[in-house]
Structures
1.
Amino acid sequence: MTRLKLFIANALLLTLLVGACTAARGPGPADPLPSWHEGATRQTILSFVADVSDPAHPDFVPAAERVAVFDNDGTLWSEKPTYFQLLFIFDRIRSMADAHPEWRSTQPLQAVLENDMEGLAAAGTEGLVTLAMTAQADLTTDEFAAMVADWTATAKHPVSGRPFTSMVFQPMLELLDYLRANGFSVYIVSGGGIDFMRPWVERVYGVPPENVIGSSPELRYDMRGEEPVIMRERAMHFINDKAGKPVGIQRFIGRRPILAAGNSDGDYEMLEWTTAGDGPRLGLLIHHTDAAREWAYDRESSEGRLDRALDAAPGYGWLVVDMTRDWAVVFPPP
Amino acid sequence: MTRLKLFIANALLLTLLVGACTAARGPGPADPLPSWHEGATRQTILSFVADVSDPAHPDFVPAAERVAVFDNDGTLWSEKPTYFQLLFIFDRIRSMADAHPEWRSTQPLQAVLENDMEGLAAAGTEGLVTLAMTAQADLTTDEFAAMVADWTATAKHPVSGRPFTSMVFQPMLELLDYLRANGFSVYIVSGGGIDFMRPWVERVYGVPPENVIGSSPELRYDMRGEEPVIMRERAMHFINDKAGKPVGIQRFIGRRPILAAGNSDGDYEMLEWTTAGDGPRLGLLIHHTDAAREWAYDRESSEGRLDRALDAAPGYGWLVVDMTRDWAVVFPPP
């Protein structure tokens, strides 16, 4: 081989290696948030993420501490006409009703079977807990996961007619990806059931089951013949809402997040806990202002009521995301 | 520049890049378990990890499902003369005693202050819970973490005179590293307090706080003036022991592990749950057989009692690690 040929072979190998190393570092600088309109909201998010990820910036945060927490209902997916898990519970009660004729005259089950929304409202929180336990207890965790997977694969949203898992917010999907691409660990911190989310959030949000924090019933390890199972009991273990959210974060993560996103007063304490820490912090509140493309609601809503947190936002420096103003699209294309 | 000089420059750059790419891929195939003696135990571990990590092997398991869980007391560090957290609790009660003269005549506190081991034994489990609450409640989570960090930095083991965090098992440190190098997620699943472990396990075991599952008290989100805090309450929330271990695993991870390691009957259900799953599974039981280098105990011990699980091991195919036979060294060099 001549020196020239050696040189060319060498140069080719070099090119291949540079390519391999570049590929290992991930894609180049395309717009990470294409569904967010230009403006102060988008710019605040971009600057925050750039600063905490830049080792040369005074606000740099080591990757292990770049923890971001997201509420689910109303923050990552819609919550109207009511919480989607409640619609799952109603569907399941209807599917069980043939085996329980007594439910036709027992409240609040009767109200579900008769689609009696006033009767349901009258049953209050206690009635909802009864419905949740009836629909979701006395099952193994595997049985419950299979039911949720089946429901998310087949059930349709009553207004849009689309699968519930397509009623997620495209700008938020981009934000989750953008954070992960910048070394963040992304967690869901929801008042909803932890095992209602786990079967589908990895596929839909890219969040693995171990990064989901939610409400949970008592669980009991038991044997079915030779086979060990984990049973869902008829009692709550932990309600991951309001002041329960920072508690759930401490239990599961053991680190204080540097970014928290929510949309309701149920997220107040999570944002407060997150943004009260030292160093750079970002609190986001999604404000549902868009009746044309999604729903418009805040202070008077029974789902995702946003009142106290909206008043507190300026004082805490929480960034209020106005859905109409800030989002170029709401849902992913069908 | 002549072609020769260009060639040399190119070759140097190539060498640097090959070096950088190799470094990014991690070290070469050095022995991953140098502190494990050659033999069936070591070979079973090596084969299991190689098989589940090899996409061409029928036992291949995707990386996301390569979850490994480890008990702490007696599995990753020693638990004699008694559980180290209990020694922390005793130290803390002694340090608080001056402000509480009534403790000198109140059991079981008096027994701690007088080093009265018979009195402590007489106080039973209820007495221990009282001591744990006295020492570890009515503190913020940050205050408690600081106390634990201070204790692990200063306290000395009563027999070895070494820091408690150096009483860890070198062969197990190598196993944790080896598993992570092969794409496993490694969790600690301990009956000990979750927030007693988090301040030091990342430094000592390479396990981040979010991968620690343990027992925990009730927590309460509260305000101290303008500052939000999370308070440790005087009541237990969850005991992560025995049948609680698979429950804790389901709560925190939401996936069934494929490898579980323990050393006592408290780990029975965790190993049972892990190894009853489909596909390749490995259960490990550390048998403390080495009175010369560590301690020798099993069926009669009050710490780490290993009786029922030892009898069950052959039937379940759990691998019993004999400390004397299988470990070339026990503790890391000072």
2.
Amino acid sequence: MAYALFYWPGLQGRGEFVRLALEEAGASYIDVARGAEGHGLGVAAMMKILKSKTESNIPFAPPFLKDGDLVIAHVANILMYLGPKLGLAPKEDSLRYVANGLQLTIMDMVTEIHDSHHPIASRLYYEDQKDAAKARAAEFIQHRMPKFMSYFERLLTRNPSGNTQIVGDSLTYVDLSLFQLIEGLTYAFPRAAKKKFSDYPALLALRDTIRVRPAIARYLASARRIPFNESGVFRHYPALDHDA
Amino acid sequence: MAYALFYWPGLQGRGEFVRLALEEAGASYIDVARGAEGHGLGVAAMMKILKSKTESNIPFAPPFLKDGDLVIAHVANILMYLGPKLGLAPKEDSLRYVANGLQLTIMDMVTEIHDSHHPIASRLYYEDQKDAAKARAAEFIQHRMPKFMSYFERLLTRNPSGNTQIVGDSLTYVDLSLFQLIEGLTYAFPRAAKKKFSDYPALLALRDTIRVRPAIARYLASARRIPFNESGVFRHYPALDHDA
């Protein structure tokens, strides 16, 4: 049976980290909230689960994955579940905890990227918190982004199995998430990326090799890949971008 | 061999969620950074791992756990690893993903609690970002805290195995983390808690039963339990607290 992925339509957001793994593996999945309501899909089908008055296991927020009766919430949790099934997890059990730890660090960075444009309230518009956003984005570009990026660069170059993947000896979902992270940051902060990203040659090389993997290249060229836009996590607001 | 827990000394912080599980289970562990440097412990021992120039698997930040050669970072990852070993995870595999999803929601809330006093920069003092903190804390108290708390209350009361634990039919690390969350919020925001927490009777009852569990009660009365203070995640700044 196909996996059912539930995430807001119209933006890549956190759902994209899951989509990239499903696409790389060629897995059969339904992107439920992007489907037609007439076919029992759409946002209504997602809200039905989130607002259920009887279900015991309901997620706090999208994305979540349904595999049969099992409902799994949070990107890192979904990827830890899917990784071995999709051939995108390290083979060794101990390395799976390393992969999950790395994915959680990526998700922490994603939260900081989100908060760079929404430092006060997710519920309100960016325009309502623009001054705080400028301060937080400056902090992010100058301090946090280099801290995270140099960490990932360090781990990638130190992988005893080679720097074509960050953990173990084969591609994992963590590499796909790093690809998305670099693409997203380059979209959101082009000036900062231009100034700073040459410090991370191994990460850039990883990004380049993933971009041309056949399944990923097909996906990126398809209508299934939503373009980056100012509804997602990675938003390009020129007022927030500057030379690092 | 004893587990080695690595976390900043002098504050409960995120490390406390791991400590509570180790204490409830009566596990043998060393709280490394709180030990004496003369014995090869202390912050120096923690920094040695974080700043290693050769290790391939280094954590981004504390807390992390060392079990033999395995180094595991991030609270939810550590608890997912320890849970089954300590008898604090659901027995069913599928429920372990539910537990991990709940723990990740708790950790997301913890980040929001941290950011209520540090909305712009973790690196700087609260006093340097007080105006933004007031705005973010007001948002947290009015919108985010009720959203998270009513979610946990809903799941707790809907657990088909009874509302004395949030997942499955026995106590798990998630229950211990909920205890810590409620204790911490009550410390940080006493006015908001007084006004609002009676809306969550099942959570309060869970908190009360965990507080008197023998191993937890002994721990809370011991010097191993660091008191809440204004270095941790849960900080009591009267300027940020108000009636919900």
